[in-house]
Structure formats: structure tokens, C-alpha cells
Amino acid sequence: MGNRIIRDLVILLAIAGVLFVGGYFMVLEINKSDLEISYQVSIEQEEKLGDMLKDVMVSDYKVIEGNLADSAVQEITNRLLAAIDSTPYRYEIKIIQNENINAFTIPGGNIYILSGLIEAADSPEEVAAVLAHEIGHAEKRHVVTKLMKDMSMTAIVSILSGGDPSVITEVLQSMVGNKFNREQEMEADKFALQLMEDAHIPPKALARFFERLNDKELDYNENLEILMTHPHNSKRIDQARKYKTRNNFKAETFNFDWEKVQKSLE
Amino acid sequence: MMFAAVAIGLPLPIINLIASVIYYFVNRKKSRFIHFHCLQALLTQIPTTVINWVAVIWAVTIFFTERTTTEIFWAYVIFAGASTFLYFVISLVAAYKARQGKMYYFLFFGNIAYQAVYKVKASDNTQSTEPVNKPPF
Description:
Order of helices and strands of chain B: HHHHH
Number of helices of chain B: 5
Distance between the termini of chain B: 30 Å
Structural class of chain A: alpha+beta
Strand content of chain B: under 5%
Largest interface: A-B, 28 and 23 residues
Number of strands of chain A: 4
Shape of chain B: elongated
Largest sheet of chain A: 4 strands, mixed
Radius of gyration of chain B: 18 Å
Oligomer: heterodimer
Strand order of the largest sheet of chain A: 1-2-4-3
Strand content of chain A: 5-15%
Number of domains of chain A: 2
Structural class of chain B: mainly alpha
Helix content of chain B: 55-70%
């Protein structure tokens, strides 16, 4: 009798286990299909979409070009891109005049960094960390995946074929207020840490920037995509802090005066 | 009764358990047959409530802390949903059988309820302790 009850209990637990494991694999399958979703949009389509959004960006926001800050950001970007083996994108990084501490990526490898973030960064390495993170979102095709989830493929095709300008603005707004999911953020962080190491930039800069944001040392925009919408994101800080560089890792500092770079934005 | 409890209990899983407890204490003295089915329903309601409560508490915790969900969380939500659905379907079958006057045994809980209700105690003087049909053991 007792054995029967134990047998029944084991069967019940086995059923529960099967349901849980089945659920887990189902979730994995759904997440895996994120990448498959992104493949529905080709790189060419993404670049075309990026160009259209870029035009709206340039007309709606003040882009800072030709000063010390711009050349510093380009130098940081070049260092990072040189460390990537191959990329389907032709990256364009622009500074936008805005006091918020933020950066975001739009399709086609177009990254925008707000002047407030450069002013808030303690060092060029911190800006490099943010850029590496944004490059991570582009390389992992998070931007397109999010777009495909927010809008249908039909809407994207309609935009590409010269669709309604109001839809383009809507897309752009969704990109600016980008909120990726935790897995995507972790993946972009991981990519950034590796890229920084390969580019001889100390990966710890990412953790430092996170920590300063988390401690509210900086009065950051609450929509700051890089730290998502909530400060209790200790796992990401942990991942950045615990990242181990290779034994032969040698950091190479940037050859510009960071204070002068920041002053060039005033 | 069960359907009402399920409908109310979806957002607040404790309602189902409270309903089962009340139902059990109100009906258990009617007959052994009813006592058995009420107890079995109550016992099966306990893990279902716990499973659903964990899902609710987990979701609320996420909402007030990290606001991002993990794969494990969603796997648990699927597990909780599937378990509740399975329980609901089995309950339907049980209700149908009980209505016909037949006994229906849930896995594991059926045995426990049977032991509790039909077990002949030394102090029992009644002769008619045998059920119409016995559980599958």
C-alpha cells in the first residue's frame, strides 16, 4: 500500500518534471526564433530602413560634428571596429546635442550617442563601453528583432517602399526609447566586454559606468537603454565586474585629453 | 462549485483552496462517498494552489524588482498553466463520474483520500465500510 503511494507520487513528480522541462524547451524554442525573425529582414533592407530613419534623425535632432568630441568618438569607434573580425554593417556613430545620458542604435549600424553621456563619462573608456554595447545590439540583430516584434513585416516593407512619414517617426521613437529584454542586454554586454578586451580597452570600464549609474551618482535618464529601466540590475553589473581578461591583456590608453573633449561640447 | 472557484481563483489562487475547505467541511458528513470525493478534491487543490501561488508571487516580485523575466520564469508559468489545465480536465472527469455514482481516483491523492475515509478502524462497529468499488490498488 505504502509502496503504491510512493509509486504514485513518483509518477506525479515525473509528470510535473516533464511539464516543466517541456515548458523550458518551449521557451528556448521561442527565444531561438528571435534570430530567425531577424533573418526575415535582409541587411540591405535594414540599411535602407536605417538610411530613412537617419534622415529623420538629422532633421529632428542637432547632430554635433567636426569638433574634438566628434573626432574622439570616431577614434574610439575605429578602435572598436578594428577589433571585429567581420561585420555586415558600415557603422556610423553620431553625437546628438542632448543633456540626457543615453545612447541608442537604429537599424543599419547607425548609433547615436547623446552629448550628456559624454559629459557624464569619467573617461573615454566608459564611452567605449557604451559604444561596444550598442555595437553588440546591432551585431546580434536585436534592433531588427525588436522592430519585427513591434511591427509586422508588411509595415516594414511599406516603410521601405516609401511609406507614411508618420510611421517612420513612430519607428524612430520606438528606437530611441529602446527597451531590449534582459537576455538581449546580457548578450550585448557580453559582446561589449569581449570587444573591449580585443580592442585593448579595459572591460572593467563597463562595470564602472554601470555602478556609477546604479549608485545614482549620475542623474541619468530613466529610459537609459544601457541600464534598462530599472536600477536593480545587479546581474549585469556582476557579469561586467567578474569578466576575466586574458593573462596577456594589455590596455592601451586613448591619446586625447578627456576634459578638453568634454569642454568641446559646451 | 469547482468552476466558480476556478474562475475566481485564477487571479487569486487561494480562493480555490478556501472553497475546497468550506465544501469539504459542509459535505463530509453526508456519506462516505461524498466525504471521499470532497477530501480528494481538497487534497488535490493544495499542490495546485501552491504551484499557482508561486507563479503569482514570482511575477509580483519581478514586477517590483528587476522587471525583466527569465526563461526559467516562463518555463514555470507554462508548467503552472499546464498543471492547472490538467487538473481542471481531470476534475471534470471526476465530477462526471461522481455524478454517476462511480468513484474516481486521482493519482496519489485518491489513495490517500481512500485510506482516510474508508479505512476500518478498530473502534468502528459499523459493518458497511466497504465501498461500491475499490481504488486501483
